[in-house]
Amino acid sequence: MLHTTSARKSQKIGWANNTSLLEIFFCLLALLYAVLLVYADTYSNTYFTDILDRANYIYYAEFSKDVFGYYSEKSIFSAFVNEPMFLLINWSVNIVTRNPENTVRLLILFSAFQAAYLTLKNGGGFAACVVILLLPSVYGNYILSLRQGVALAFFLTGWFSKNNYIKFALIGFAPLIHTSFYISLFLLLFQWMSRKYASPIYYNIVVFVVLCVAAILLIPYVGSSLGVRQAEGYASADFEDVKGSGLGLVFWFLILIVFLNQGQKFLQCNLFSVYCLVFYVLSYILFPTFARTIQNHALLILISGFYLSGLNKLLFYSLVILFFAYTVFSVLNFGLLSPFLQS
Asked: In b/e form, how buried is each residue of 185-209, taking b as 16+ CB within 10 angstroms?
């Protein structure tokens, strides 16, 4: 069902063997990455709560028990669909730190470290891994979308686990931290069905497009009827703000074209990444709020790009380098946190 290591043996790449020394190097580099993101507000001369949503995360850290009680009073089902594990994690960590801000910082440290370590360990080259970790779609999970970052840490740990029990448990755990990972489960389910029934790959993609359109149009109404937290903002969402400049759409759409051009063998091995890209493009057009789920899948999509070959690999690296250059330009001119600050 999942995009496991065994499914990629024919495409296996890497820049070194997993020696103990290399593992230590990965850990140290991942720790550096995480610490820099934990204290991004400090070296940017910004107040912690000036970053978007940080005040909300401090509230969750301090009053997670009360938030859970609020949803529980509605119904057990309401408590279940409103990210109970994120509340439990906050409550547990805050018991230890006794400081909501430090609780949030610890969650950033854990999630950013785990994402960086797993990327370095499973990616296709040191320099390439560093570059993708410095793209906004990746590091944004540890500055703004912290809840997604924590859920992604569990999802990635399960994804790369060689133990199927751990794999399914952690991937299934992620939606209980952030509900957007139910979409990831939907994509995984369709990937499993595609492989089980062995239909032609391009036929599967066309069917997936049709299902995605239906799902994107229905999910807001289903979420609202179930009392999901995010549904409260659907009606008032400013889609123009969500869409932004459109540069992300261009980047990810071109990545999708490159993937589709690689051929059936690549598509079979990287079907989940292709479905993630299709879902993102359709979401951006039909219901931009859902396009934010690209942050859940950006790392896995970019790691899939390491398995391209020939001209497609060159095009992929060119796109990533251009997007990275734009990111560097923006950071140098406006600062690392400028897109994430309250206006």
From this structure: ebbbebbeebeeeeeebeebbeebe
Alpha carbons 170 and 1: distance in angstroms, whole number: 15
Q: pLDDT for 123-149, tens place per residue? A: 878 889 999 999 999 999 999 999 999
6: buried, middle or exposed (CB in 10 Å: 19+, 13-18, 0-12)?
A: exposed
Q: Concatenated DSSP letters for 16-30?
A: S---HHHHHHHHHHH
12: three-class secondary structure by DSSP: coil
Q: What distances in angstroms separate CA 6 from CA 1, 3, 250, one per listed residue?
A: 12, 8, 32
Residues, the chain, total?
343
How far is 294 from 137, CA to CA, in rounded Å? 7
DSSP at 290: G
- Closest of 152, 128, 129 to residue 141, by C-alpha: 152
Q: Is 22 exposed, middle or buried (0-12, 13-18, 19+ CB in 10 A)?
A: middle
Summarised one tens digit per residue, pLDDT across range 41-77 is: 998 889 998 999 999 999 999 999 999 999 888 888 8
CA dihedral over 2, 204, 306, 9, signed as positive or negative = positive
Rounded-to-integer distance, Cα 124 and Cα 91, Å: 37
pTM for this entry: 0.89
| CB of 48 closer than 8 Å to CB of 41 | yes
CB neighbours of residue 300 within 10 Å: 21
Cα–Cα dist 114/34, whole Å = 9
Neighbours of 74 (CB within 10 A): 11
Instruction: Name the DSSP class of 179.
Output: T
CB half-sphere exposure, 177, CA atoms < 13 A: 22
Q: How far is CA 114 from the centre of its chain?
A: 12
